[in-house]
Write a structure and sequence with these properties.
The structure holds four protein chains of four kinds.
Chain A: H1 4-22, H2 26-42, H3 47-64, H4 71-86, H5 95-99, H6 109-140, H7 147-162, H8 165-174, H9 183-193, H10 195-219
Chain B: H1 2-6, H2 10-26, H3 37-47, E1 54-60, H4 69-83, E2 86-91, H5 97-111, E3 119-124, H6 128-137, H7 139-142, E4 169-174, H8 178-190, E5 194-198, H9 200-203, H10 207-212, E6 218-220, H11 221-231, H12 237-280
Parallel strand pairs in B: 1-2, 1-4, 2-3, 4-5, 5-6
Helix pairs in contact in B: 2-12, 4-5, 4-11, 6-8, 11-12
Chain D: H1 2-17, H2 25-64, H3 77-84, H4 99-134, H5 141-160, H6 169-212
Helix pairs in contact in D: 1-2, 1-6, 4-5, 5-6
Classes of the chains: A mainly alpha, B alpha/beta, C alpha/beta, D mainly alpha.
């Protein structure tokens, strides 16, 4: 029950999905559509996994008083506020609450305000830290120590300059005596269109074979790591 | 001295990069933008659509990376509304839906487009691949109602649209791996035409699909946004951004070159020192 | 003089103008009957679910004047007992094929194609025979795809079976792996620790699994030398698995006494805080070797840069394509993409991994052959490989 | 309220940037608040845009007989029950039950992937490598050079990822060229990534200078 049934289910659903791909008949397409609909219904529940893990870790942190445990309360406050305002749309029918200006659900102005003024700026800022780190890494770590690294750096510099209008401007001013215009952006485009394309294609071909081989192993029950430990 | 230069406090570099963005934002400059072929292809494709055609816009980016795709979406929507091409908004990423809603409202107000007639936002459904596949047979099977909860059957512009057969193009604005998923499932299985507008991070890996025609066009990052804005003659955030970006790139290129010069000089010196010490032994 | 010429054209020109008008009118009246679309044919669409019929035709011949040019085609259909009614929109004038996918499966329909001119006059083709849509049980165009899938599956399964039966499977030398011993040796010599970073992946992540396999092998070597091995984790589940793996490595080497559970610890599950934490460890403890193996996201460059600045030997490996450039530029050795998986197969000698690795190589060989052969044949003017691939893709 | 929102956003932005100086309580507060809100947002949207329209509504309509739904809607109970098994994660003893929904989702995913990935990535990409040669008569010398370079690049890169042969002699040479192609590919990714990361900073600076300072002056 704990391992065999899931393996059989995985095999059956996998094989049916493969076969429907080759059978255009409406019966087969109906089956295919049915399974897609079922998995559409099942997949939202998977959120439970992520949320449970998160709550568990922060709960452990609070109960064990590990370093900075107080901040775990902030995580809980964040979750509770969003859920309390976003989920109970039925409370919109309670006239007392709407009289004092409270509204609920994902379209509620409070929910949108929190999203636009708290979540969006933090998420965007968090990632923009990378601009600083990339600059510092460029200075402190990106050295042409091997042939490979040199090739990588030179390509990177050309693409970086080709990506911005100032690249062409510099070329057209400094190299005005040559018969060629806009060489920086042309070079960038050529690199992306040619050697970059071949390298990517090589990677795609290799990776896709890997994906297919893993899918085959999963359907046949050879690869079982997704079942986790006992 | 050289040692010191090589191990400079990273906070000095942080300040330099901040200034390279702040100053051009305060004192904007206008640099000439050279267009590139992938963006031009996308523009030509949309421009050739007759009025009344429908494109699908997939907002597959979260708040963390909205800087690049948002101006692209804006430029393309303006182009479509001007041409009378209708837009269906959809997203596979959970935190994109509120962003998409805000952006669509903004552009439609500016262009006088009407919800339900010129554009519609279907919203989000969990399950990426299944959502794409489901819409291939019947859009209403996945989105029986739009983002606001209104049944699709009550939305006028959805009257003649059942699945991808009635959609002329899917433009995926992506900050992750969604473009490949759209190609694998919507293009291969249902023959939907696909174009992409992606953040800089994933630009390079789009090119194999561009060459095979699996992508009909591509907007590469801020540059793509700026190019599209140039093509529709409405410079906005993308153009401002790419001009500012110029100075930051210049700084980073400078830093890489400088540090490599220091590295080589240093290496040569230390090689010299070690060979001397060998002689002394 | 010149002005006069314009006012009073020469007789020849006058004649020509009259001729053109007469001819024009004549043809115009004649072309009232623009030749309608010919050879109209309706067929059940092959390889579908039976929910469409495909109609093909030859273009109508335009009239000469603009008004008589064909503006487009309208498809009309009827059921046996009914009247003709329009289906679909007005098709552009270059169309010669239409797929009517609004039919009832099994009901017979007859079609006509109507050419519509600029002035709105219509010219109907003859009526087709009655056809009905039927679903097919096998997609004939997908036979090659089916065969390719079958062959590849057999190759994978056969190789795994082969590996399981104890036959040796060769895996090539992987440069980064030779550096592993060098790095451990150096750490031992200097009396410093080794830092092994697993990245942000969860236990089901293929790259994380590969990384854990490699960690197991690294642990066996450090057990011998008694070099401290520090592993900060970012996922609580990974933490437990990793502890198990490292402990059994130490046990296998006969050094369970050297295993210290506190060296494998949970840091935090959030991305940047994890990066900051690992940075702190690097700066404080100055490990002699840093392993960055697994799934990485944007934090990759923060880690690689700090490791580089403390002068550690860095061996990185990831399948996260976007992070590879940073590792290559800032680390001493980098396992690129599939190399990470190969490395875990190489070190662990697990039959399932070795077998599928070779199966995938067979697949590559096949692609290889298709490309080389395809190019040679194309250059000789034979294009059947290209056409074949086009039909399938 | 809007101005207040901008100030809140600006404050949080500064909290996070303070990390650039060093780790500090402001950063930690913002970081944890962000994690909490993001998860909460995910829950809300999944319920309202996922569970309610896909699972609850059809089921409810089937029970009450409202709308166009038929009694077949009751069949939706099966996937709903399978989905509910995810909650078994909360109990240590029954957590193996989550293998049922996982096995179905993974089986479906793998099944769809095999033929489609084969078609989209292997057949189409191989075909794409050959197409320039089928129209070689119409290409300029430079384009022919590009086409040949592409074939060389693809073959050399593939060779590099070939593991069952020792890389010696000619194969070593070919795979060395493959590495060179890979490095150019990664270099271009690097250059583009810089564009992407700086773009994020530009957007934040634009917010601080134009939107936030705009409320002051």
């Amino acid at each position: 029950m704990t391992r065999q049934v899931p393996l059989v289910l995985c095999f059956l659903f996998g094989i049916v999905m493969i076969l429907t791909e080759f059978v255009p008949h409406s019966r087969s397409q109906g089956l295919y559509q049915g399974i897609v609909n079922w998995s559409l219904i099942i997949s939202p529940f998977a959120l439970v996994l992520a949320v449970a893990t998160l709550i568990q870790t922060h709960w452990t942190r609070i109960s064990r008083h590990t370093e900075h445990w107080q901040y775990s309360y902030v995580v809980f406050i964040g979750i509770i506020i969003m859920v309390l305002i976003g989920v109970p749309t039925f409370l919109n029918n309670v006239s007392f609450l709407s009289k004092i200006g409270l509204s609920f659900g994902p379209k509620s102005p409070i929910f949108e305000w929190l999203f636009n003024n708290v979540q969006v700026p933090m998420d965007a800022t968090m990632f923009s830290l990378l601009a600083f780190f990339i600059a510092s890494a460029a200075y402190r770590a990106f050295r042409a120590r091997t042939f490979e690294a040199t090739l990588l750096l030179i390509t990177a510099l050309i693409v970086m300059m080709g990506n911005v209008p100032i690249g062409d401007l510099i070329w057209n001013t400094v190299m005005a005596w040559t018969p060629w215009d806009d060489v920086t952006s042309t070079a960038r485009q050529w690199i992306l269109d040619n050697p970059n394309l071949s390298a990517r294609r090589g990677i795609i071909l290799g990776v896709s074979l890997g994906v297919i081989s893993q899918s085959i192993r999963i359907i046949l029950g050879i690869e079982r790591s997704y079942l986790g430990g006992d | 001295m050289l040692e010191k230069l090589m191990n400079i406090d990273r906070r000095i570099i942080f300040i330099a990069i901040a200034l390279s963005v702040i100053i051009p934002t305060l004192l904007p400059v206008n640099l000439p933008i050279t267009g590139s072929e992938p963006t031009q292809k996308l523009y030509d494709y949309i421009d050739a659509l007759p009025p009344g055609s429908t494109i699908m816009l997939a907002f597959d980016y979260g708040p963390s990376s909205l800087a690049e795709p948002a101006p692209m979406a804006e430029a393309v929507m303006k182009h479509c509304f001007d041409k009378g091409v209708r837009i269906i908004g959809v997203t596979l990423i959970v935190d994109a839906v509120t962003l998409a809603d805000k952006l669509m409202q903004k552009v439609s107000e500016e262009k006088g487009a009407v919800y339900g007639k010129d554009y519609v936002l279907l919203g989000f459904r969990p399950g990426v691949t299944q959502v794409i596949l489901g819409m291939g047979t019947e859009i209403a099977g996945v989105f029986e109602s739009d983002y606001t909860g209104k049944p699709l059957s009550e939305i006028p512009m959805m009257a003649n649209i059942t699945n991808y057969d009635q959609i002329d193009l899917l433009l995926d604005l992506s900050a992750g791996s969604t473009v490949e998923i759209w190609i694998t499932y919507a293009n291969v299985k249902y023959g939907l035409q696909i174009a992409a507008g992606v953040t800089g991070v994933i630009v390079s890996q789009m090119y194999p699909y561009l060459q095979t025609g699996q992508l009909v066009g591509l907007m590469p990052g801020f540059l793509g946004a700026a190019e599209y804005e140039k093509l529709i003659n409405a410079p906005a955030k993308g153009t401002e951004g790419i001009n500012t970006e110029s100075f930051a790139h210049l700084l980073i290129v400078g830093l890489v070159i400088m540090s490599n010069i220091a590295f080589f000089v240093h290496q040569r010196q230390s090689v010299g020192a070690s060979s001397r010490s060998q002689r002394e032994e | 003089m010149k002005g006069q010429k314009i006012l009073c054209p020469s007789p020849v020109v006058q004649g020509l103008v009259i001729l053109v008008f007469v001819l024009g009118f004549g043809l115009n009246t004649f072309a009232q009957g623009v030749t309608p679309p010919m050879n109209v044919d309706a067929k059940d669409t092959p390889n579908d679910a039976g929910k469409s019929i495909t109609i093909t035709w030859e273009k109508a011949v335009d009239g000469i004047s603009v008004a008589n040019r064909v503006r487009g085609y309208q498809i009309l259909r009827r059921i046996e007992t009914g009247e003709f009614e329009e289906v679909g929109p007005l098709l552009p004038p270059e169309t010669t094929e239409y797929k009517d996918s609004t039919i009832e499966e099994g009901t017979p329909y007859a079609y006509i194609v109507r050419a519509v001119t600029e002035d709105g006059t219509t010219f109907d083709s003859g009526e087709t025979d009655f056809v009905k849509g039927t679903g097919e049980w096998f997609h004939t165009k997908k036979i090659p795809l089916f065969l390719a899938m079958l062959l590849f599956s057999i190759a994978i399964v056969w190789n795994i079976y082969h590996a399981q039966s104890g036959k040796e499977i060769f895996v090539r030398r992987i440069p980064g792996l030779e550096a592993v011993d060098e790095a451990i040796g150096r750490a031992t010599e200097m009396g410093r620790s080794i830092l092994y970073v697993l990245g942000l992946g969860g236990v089901s992540d293929v790259a994380t699994i590969a990384s854990m396999t490699i960690l197991g092998q690294v642990a066996r070597r450090t057990a011998d030398y008694e070099t401290p091995l520090r592993v900060p984790c970012n996922d609580p589940v990974v933490l437990n698995v990793v502890r198990e793996i490292v402990r059994s490595s130490y046990l296998n080497e006969g050094r369970p006494d050297a295993y210290n559970e506190e060296n494998i610890f949970f840091l935090t599950e959030s991305q940047f805080a994890y990066a900051a934490g690992v940075d702190g460890i690097m700066v404080r403890e100055k490990p002699a070797a840093v392993f960055l193996q697994g799934t990485f996201y944007a934090e990759s460059l923060i880690l690689a840069e700090t490791g580089n600045s403390i002068g550690a030997i860095q061996i990185a490996g990831t399948a996260s394509e976007h992070q590879l450039p940073f590792f290559i530029a800032a680390c001493d050795y980098t396992l690129i993409g599939e190399e990470l998986y190969a490395a875990s197969a190489y070190l662990s000698k697990e039959p399932m991994l070795l077998g599928s690795l070779r199966g995938q190589d067979w697949g590559k060989l096949f692609i290889f052959a298709a490309i080389v052969l395809g190019v040679i044949l194309e250059l000789l003017g034979v294009n059947w490989i290209t056409t074949f691939l086009q039909r399938v893709s | 309220m809007e101005v207040f929102g901008i100030w809140v956003a600006a404050f949080l932005t500064f909290c996070i940037y303070s990390f650039l100086y060093r780790d500090n309580p402001f950063y930690r507060f913002a970081e944890h608040l962000f994690i909490g809100l993001a998860v909460g947002y995910g829950i809300v949207i999944t319920i309202h845009q996922g569970l309610i329209p896909l699972a609850w509504n059809p089921l409810w309509q089937a029970i009450t007989g409202e709308g166009e739904a038929s009694r077949w809607g009751l069949l939706n109970l099966i996937p709903i029950c399978i989905g509910l098994l995810f909650f078994a994660r909360l109990s240590r003893r029954h957590s193996w039950l989550i293998r049922y929904p996982l096995a179905i989702l993974i089986g479906v995913g793998s099944g769809i992937a095999i033929p489609n990935v084969l078609q989209a990535d292997i057949f189409a990409q191989t075909h794409g490598t050959l197409t320039p040669f089928s129209q070689i008569g119409r290409l300029s010398a430079f384009e022919i050079f590009g086409a040949i370079l592409m074939v060389i690049g693809v073959i050399c890169t593939l060779t590099y990822f070939f593991f069952s042969v020792e890389h010696q002699g000619a194969i070593a040479g070919i795979s060395k060229i493959g590495i060179a192609f890979l490095m150019i590919g990664f270099g271009s990714a690097f250059g583009n990534t810089v564009m992407g990361r700086v773009a994020l900073l530009i957007q934040r600076v634009d917010f601080l200078l134009n939107n936030w300072l705009g409320t002051l002056f």
